[in-house]
Amino acid sequence: MIEIRRLTKRYADGTTAVSNLSLTLGKKITGILGRNGAGKTTTLRILSTQMMPTSGTVRINGLDLVKDVDRIRGIIASIPQEAKVMGIASPMEHVSMYLNARGLEKDEIEGLAKGALKELNMWQVRDKPTADLSGGMKRKVFVAMAIASKAEIIFLDEPTTGLDPISRLEVWSAIKKLDCDTVITTHYMEEAKELADEVVLIDNGRCVAQGSVPELLKSFNGKVRVEGPTGKYKVGGMRISYLSAAEARKFVGKGYYTRPASLEDLLIVNGGGAIED
Ligand SMILES: Nc1ncnc2c1ncn2[C@@H]1O[C@H](COP(=O)(O)OP(=O)(O)OP(=O)(O)O)[C@@H](O)[C@H]1O
Ligand SMILES: [Mg+2]
Q: Whose CA is nearest to atom 19 of ligand 1?
């Protein structure tokens, strides 16, 4: 359980990346969605103790983020968005060193590392220097470290960016199998739909929606998305509106396309689409 109260982060240049954010995260898998620059990474950096907030409080499984920082570090694991591998070390060495640093016993480390690397289909490359791995494989090294960690909560900042569709399925399956709670950011709507018990939508450092995917989609009241030359929201050169099925039918065949509202549409109506006058 993560309790975030009035959390604010202002960077040295004055950018307010997280603004008075209050959230309670208590589901097994939480998906954080939001546009580039919404404040997802900043929030995760704070929750994973890599950065101090400007103000506000966070409790993770009852522990205070500032006062109990060492204990929190013992129960969480995280993959930063921009994590870089140590080129000369192999995937096996990455996972083993990480587990060793977390204080796990040697006998246990071998089994956990093997399990994670096999699960992610990395067993054949386990001893190769990570510098010589493909981009997606490098990303999977971090996923292996996190899933092997035995942490109580893991934070994954865009863990599947750059992964092929099969690798993505392997990562999803590995995350679903974990006993721990997971907070994951993603730009892939199907990933959020597949994995997240609850989705949190962030815009401008604030939470603009929170709930399960079916709950959030109920806010459209059965309305469908209508795309075409005119509409309420502007996304690039496209205009989009949300209309009842009966209203939407009037536009069909006149240069408009309709489709059911999805998670992407939640982003559009919650700050993602500019509103047309
Ligand atoms: N070190 C920094 N100094 C100043 N501003 C920063 C810094 N890091 C991030 N920001 C700003 O904070 C805001 C939020 O950035 P953040 O990285 O948290 O977004 P994000 O939601 O993770 O985006 P993305 O989807 O692109 O990863 C942005 O306006 C960004 O430019
Ligand atoms: Mg980010």
A: 37
- Mean pLDDT over all residues of the chain? 94
pLDDT tens digits for range 69-78: 999 999 999 9
For residue 34 the two structure tokens come to 């939001």
Q: Is the CB of 34 under 6 A from ligand 1?
A: yes
Q: Are residues 161 and 72 in the same domain?
A: yes
Whether 225 contacts 260, CB under 8 Å: yes
Q: How far apart are CA 209 and CA 221, in angstroms?
A: 16
User: How does pLDDT run across 174-192, given as a tens digit for each residue?
Assistant: 999 999 999 999 999 999 9
How far away, in angstroms, is 110 Cα from ligand 2 center? 32
> The whole model's pTM is what?
0.93
Q: Which domain holds residue 251?
A: 219-275
Check residue 13 and give left, alpha or beta (phi > 0: left; psi -120 to 50: alpha).
alpha
Q: Are residues 164 and 259 in the same domain?
A: no
Q: What are 2-42's pLDDT values in tens digits?
A: 999 999 999 999 999 999 999 999 999 999 999 999 999 99
